[in-house]
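Objective 1b of the project was to move from sequence-level analysis to a structural picture of ligand recognition. The entry below was assembled by the postdoctoral researcher (A.K.) and checked by the PI before modelling. It contains the amino acid sequence of the target and the SMILES of the bound compound, flavin-adenine dinucleotide.
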Amino acid sequence: MSSYQAPKAGSKIIIVGGGCFGLSTALSLATDKSKNYTVVVYDREEIPVRDAASNDISKVVRMDYGDSRLCMELAIDSIDVWNQWNKETQVPIYHNTGMLIFSGASQLCENELHSLKHIRNAGHADWIEELHGDQITERYPYLETAVNNGISAAYYNKIGGWCNSSEAIKHVYKKCKDNGVQFILGKETGNFETLVCKGKSVTGIKTRDGTTHHADRVIMTAGSWTPSLLDMKKQVIATGQIVVHFRPSEKIKQTLKNLPVWFGDFSRAGFYGFPINDDGVMKVALHSTGYLNPRQGDGVSVPRTQSTNDQDTIPLRAVQEFREYLQLFLPITEELDITYSRVCWYADSVDGQFIVAPHPDYDNLIVATGDSGHAMKFLPMIGTRIAQIVENIDNEYSRAWAWRTVQPRAGFYDRPILGDEPNSPTRMVTSAHLRSSKL
Ligand SMILES: Cc1cc2nc3c(=O)[nH]c(=O)nc-3n(C[C@H](O)[C@H](O)[C@H](O)COP(=O)(O)OP(=O)(O)OC[C@H]3O[C@@H](n4cnc5c(N)ncnc54)[C@H](O)[C@@H]3O)c2cc1C
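Corresponding predicted holo structure:
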């Protein structure tokens, strides 16, 4: 039996990390006026933080979740709030382009079939249109090569699309401030260094400037930095994932104008992409095992970002993988330079599920992490679920995200390491490598 107890009304709650999990939680706790909590968020930088996973031009918002009914339901609820938020902002932060989801074979595969089953069981069969080769090429002629290459079974879900995630973070940040959440930000004053404890009880945090901050409850939401700040018992590791941008010509923009958010065989190849945005940028990314950056001493992987290494691009082998896949799937990109690239960091959990639970080493520390590369879409709702867990409320989400000791699949910790050696395939490329070889 866990000794964890909900905080009393009027408690001071510290949240470490002002990204997707942290801000959404702060907003939920602060808007529950019956509890009268004092909520204080700490972060290393001004929000949105430059290298936070949640700070990006776009993230996919989808309900298509294979066999995870809980995630599908949370995504559907989140989409309702995304639509409400669009009414609160001058420019939409959520774009309902629909989702075009491929199986990478001539028939839909297990993951996609599970998604369809749950969406239909939830009463939304009318959102789905299954598409076969000819229908795909008729509607999206620029995908003919993909179809000819056997990526020819797909479905279109008319609900879903993408959010402008940095704008969404700004929106929630403002809502937090409007609801009385306090922020302590900065590389000394806001930077968590260590927990302050009395026995197994956490009584506060110490920041880099040496100040101790008392709290009745601490919630760790430091994203991919979490395992380098707290012993996560090897249940979460920081993995670097690849993002590239293109700036298509006017002609290509016209050709691709009906392209929705797409998953090209997401459950196996992992590539996905976005329509061209209003700034003329088309983003493509890869959801994969990613890269590690082990620190000296204990080997824990820590995020290496363009804030810590400002000349970083992406590893050579990633450029090769992107070009190879896009040649099969969207060859129109062959003539485009990669205009921007980034390694962005997941807190990868062993089973891909979030971990939102009391930490087993302490009586009263909550961790909310293990995003595994798919939490941004839940920004509008995840805080409500995390707040329930903080308040010790038992439900399907608290059980699914409970602290667990999962035996990893073979090779889970064994991923390529970002390298600096001149001949390493994982060294960062120069701008010459990012240019199209077709020009
Ligand atoms: C390449 C990539 C693509 C993705 N695509 C999608 C997608 O399409 N759809 C989707 O739903 N999700 C997507 N995600 C996942 C999504 O971005 C994350 O799940 C989400 O941002 C996780 O939120 P977080 O709050 O845990 O982490 P972050 O948003 O990274 O926030 C963590 C915060 O903790 C702060 N912090 C760290 N250390 C300290 C410290 N010592 N003291 C104080 N603060 C600290 C950081 O500065 C940061 O602000 C993607 C992620 C990546 C990397």
